[in-house]
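RAS protein activator like 1 structure dump, as promised
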Amino acid sequence: MAKISSLNVRVVEGRALPAKDVSGSSDPYCIVKVDDEVVARTATVWRSLSPFWGEEYTVHLPLDFHHLAFYVLDEDTVGHDDIIGKISLSREAIAADPRGIDSWINLSPVDPDAEVQGEIYLAVQMLEDMRGRCLRCHVLKARDLAPRDISGTSDPFARVFWGSQSLETSTIKKTRFPHWDEVLELREMPGGPSPLRVELWDWDMVGKNDFLGMVEFPPKVLQQNPPNGWFRLLPFPRAEEDSGGSLGALRLKVRLLEDRVLPSRCYRPLLELLMESVLQPAEEDVSSPLAVLEELTSGDCRQDLATKLAKLFLGQGLAGPFLDYLTRRELARTTDPNTLFRSNSLASKSMEQFMKLVGMPYLHEVLKPVISRVFEEKKYIELDPSKMDLGRTKRLSFKGSASEEHVREASLGLLMGYLGPIVDAIVGSVGRCPPAMRLAFKQLYRRVEERFPRDEHKDVKYLAISGFLFLRFFAPAILTPKLFDLRDQHADPQTGRSLLLLAKAVQSIGNLGQQLGQGKELWMAPLHPFLLQSILRVRDFLDQLVDVDGEEEAEGPARALVPPSVTVREGYLLKRKEEPGGLATRFAFKKRYFWLSGETLSYAKSPECQVVTQDGTGTLHTTYLQCRNVNDLNQWLSALRKASAPNPDKLATCHPGAFRGARWTCCLQAELSAAGCSHTHSAVTLGDWSDPLDPDAETQMVYRQLLLGRDQLRMKFLEDFNADSSPEADREDSGAMEGACPDALAGQREAAARLLEVLEDLDGAHEEFQRQEQGKAAPGLRRP
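structure tokens r here:
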């Protein structure tokens, strides 16, 4: 049994941000922090006060995290980036609603005294002698303090308050990891019991000292359970300042998931019910657990359910039957082929998530070369006369303004220069498309052909496949390559317009030309001859794509928890080994290509990223790696944490600094072999499409989805069934089952009853494990 905690974070957009540049605009980006750790950075949106990011992250967390913060900054080419504002959400605020937060939130100003981080180690004793009571506070050390000086360090000292008395430790210069090991004793003065407050400050020779954080303990805690250990530093308590919207606002979607994952045997009955559903041969299935699940979910819940189910069946080797089952359900209730898979049904969402799970390397291989060209060349492309900038040529070449026809012809040539290679790459990718995707499309092709066999519907089977592959996979990736990991940054407005035109063209090809020449975008007409020619090639491509042999179970083995021989991340990093002489210049770093697997890190880029390697003799060595940016750093750190999770020899502490001048620059310890002053972070990781499948966690989430609709399940399918089983009551019982036969309704009720029974069993298992946990903790609670 294990406990899991994760945050689903979506930074949607901003509005009414203040202008920070002389141009009257800003270049905003957003940093996401969990407690003191930066976990993500959005791309920069250039020259915008109402930026759209649309970036989504899944962050796996320690169970005791405290708050989530969003900082909006303006990127500057020269000097430091300007801070615009922040939003801070406590764990309690996020967990207050199971559906999470989905709203616009005003940015607040950033108060330096509130920007604290790090921990302090204290050991407190309450003593009593003939002179009265005495508090002995042993201030040992602190770690990961905020840098307050221009050098990137601080000069910290501690100040201890008890009642009307206060004492200070010595000041440790130029460190964020101070070691004091000082004992301060304070005598109790007349008056009521007083709390203990320990403040950390950065000493400054000129001006006032800078606040680093504080901890406070009430008298009851001092008396019954004196503090002893690491304690997180907190800001001074103060009311949150509301800027009244003057700093702008962010639209955020945040949801916290905290759960207990039971042993696999507890989920076997629910898993069997779900597997049984997809293996049923019936074309019209209205009584399976999956059918009931679809009835109970909508919107975002259906999206989450589709993701978990796609992973679950992929891990069981039944992704093909699962998608085929959903296809049959969708076809059974579709009468107009023009509406097939056009809604956000469970079938559509599941196929979409399935393609992302198995097809992302394929997508990168097909699209990345051309997408990179578009970003690097930054050509001006425009076909819409209402958006053409005719004066642009004059500004660039100092000649007269170009005519509309000239701009159109130049843009058409450039667009064809990008679109042609994209089409070539797609139609030539049959052999590179994952077998699981080809088998799923083959099933889809066959089912649609059976449902709509008439000649007038001969294109429907092609449209069904191209609707997923082109409209829901290739076109969105071309439009927003950052969201599909094709680029590190969002496109600037000019490049974004080029990508939009390319995505529109790919959508037209995916629609097999059905809407060419219709609608308001008649300015796309110059592209029509090329699009019609490409459509003929795409039909041949789709025929080849579904011409595949193999069984539906050929999904390949389920992804284990970082299989030892599988490369989980690779790429270029700057590397430098530790040298006795101390820190080297930036020219001492060498560019190397690194591979990370579940067993090794064999020759990888980050601010102050440190990896410890070991030679054949067991000697530890320090290697410094530098990443391109903070996102690259976080992705490498996340991959390293996942890969090293089962490693029993993983170090618990490390030195974030370097050994220079006969001491560590971080904590100033003089011994090279001294224990690390900072703990190694292992809990915060980023979710990724290539993450290992976890059937128990995925089944637990399906169980939670069912719990949300349990009352609706009882009411819709079981309530008053015994009291009134007349045909009239059956017809009124479920609007979704209107027109169904009595046998089907009876089957629906039977399926609902079986699901409720499984839910009750899982409820009982959770309660039993909770009692066991409480039983283990009880002896400690009973000790005096």
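The chain has five domains: 2-107+249-255, 119-232, 262-333+699-719+744-755, 345-391+403-554, 567-650.
lmk if u need the other ones
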